[in-house]
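Continuing from the previous page...

OK, I double-checked the sequence for Vesicle transport SEC20 against my notes and this is the correct one:
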Amino acid sequence: MAELPPQSKVKIREIVQLEIEVTALIQETTNISESQDELNQVNTKVKKLIQSLRRKLEELKQIGEEQDKESSHVKITEEVDKHYYNLSSMQGNFRKAITKAQISIEKYEKSQLMSAEPKNELRHRQQSKEGLAKSASSITENLMSIAKMMESQVQQSRNNTEVLSKYLLPLGVILMCEKNQHCLA
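Thanks. Re-ran it with the corrected sequence; updated structure tokens here:
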């Protein structure tokens, strides 16, 4: 069997390191049970690592295509295929881990909602008061903005009316004079 070129060995080490990182994050995803934000952060990290892994695999594939020896080319192609299979398997495991974590988060949130502890109710009320205050502030700002827009539209209409009356009144007099053939102007 042919020996792999040094540059391909380095690339394979990088790929294996990325696979280990992705696998660790998949395991971390499986253990998330309370925070959707945490799940989203891990999800983003995994997606970035998977993109990086794909780039490294493409680079390794390119190295294999550039090989003069057919045996080196075949060996590198086998490595690329093996790692693509690993990638596919990791993506499936990641989807399963996300599903499991989302179910755990939903159960946790449901139990929090159903909990009859007064402390939690107070916390939820405080959160809702803060949310209401923010909503009220936002609504007030929007109403003020709408009022300013309406005021500018009314002013623009007044200006248009003044301009029209300024020019249409004399035009009306001229038209009446032409129709009656005499003008009192």
